[in-house]
Design goal:
single chain, about 80 residues, alpha+beta, 2 helices
């Protein structure tokens, strides 16, 4: 299950919002995080955030996608 965001920051903000709701604590670098999941770049340069297990709003529930198309990794 994924939510799609126009910007990476929006996706990180939603992940952090979920972490705060779950009581995850951020202390210092390397000693904890409030992020629940990490966004992935889509083929359309949007950001797909895995949201399985998230407490979603009704609006978010209606927007959830089962899958997304990742952006291909270019060969070097």
């Amino acid at each position: 299950m994924y939510l799609i965001f126009a910007t990476e920051q929006e996706a990180w903000d939603r992940s952090e919002q979920e972490g705060i709701a779950r009581g995850l604590a951020y202390h210092k670098v390397g000693q904890g995080t409030r992020y629940v999941s990490s966004p992935k770049v889509t083929v359309n340069d949007n950001y797909a955030l895995p949201v399985s297990g998230y407490n979603l709003t009704e609006e978010e529930q209606e927007a959830v996608l089962e899958e997304y198309t990742p952006k291909p990794v270019e060969d070097i």
